[in-house]
Amino acid sequence: MKSVLFLCTGNSARSILAEAYLNHAGAGRYQAHSAGSHPTGKVNPLALATLSSHGIEACGVRSKTWDEFARPGAPAIDVVITVCDSAAAELCPVWPGHPLKAHWGVPDPATLTGTDEQKRRAFEQTFRVLARRIDLLLALPVEKLDKKSLDEIGGC
Fold first, then answer.
1. Could you report how far apart the first and last alpha carbons of the chain are, in Å?
2. What is the model's pTM?
3. Mean pLDDT computed over 113-142
4. Which CATH number describes the domain made up of 2-154?
5. Annotated catalytic, 156?
6. Measured between alpha carbons, how far is residue 96 from residues 63, 67, 91, 119, 120 in Å?
7. Residue in 9, 11, 58, 25 with CA at minimum distance from that of residue 139
8. Reading across the β-sheet that carries 100-103, which strands appear in turn?
9. How is the chain split into domains, by residue range?
10. What is the pLDDT of residues 110-124, one digit of tens each?
11. Which residue of the set 4, 5, 8, 16 is catalytic?
12. Of 17, 51, 84, 100, which residue is the catalytic one?
């Protein structure tokens, strides 16, 4: 089973959506985790509502620092995927070591201002983009996983 770490800045929305979806859709093949360089310390309620609307369990998800995965005894990470939106000049954490690395930038729905309905739609759009990319990841044979394939998925 491959271990994937989704990273972003606050670890409250995008990386949480990706972690929960991959654990749901890739059960038995992938174990997903998420973390942030500057975690907010709480999961955005709209992220939880979005997951729930898709029938995805979010038990145990929490906003946490990426330092948890650099400590002795932490799970070995095979793939690191940053989901921060570099186009918005957002800080993207860099992961040391030798895992496969890719960037799947997605705008942060948690920063959107507007009506509750606009915010809900932004979270749904973010979920759909990440789910589509994760579905493409799941379509690849695990043994054929490489940086080129991961980068191509991020361009979708």
1. 25
2. 0.92
3. 96
4. 3.40.50.2300
5. no
6. 21, 11, 16, 34, 34
7. 25
8. 30-36, 2-8, 79-82, 100-103
9. 2-154
10. 999 999 999 999 999
11. 8
12. 84
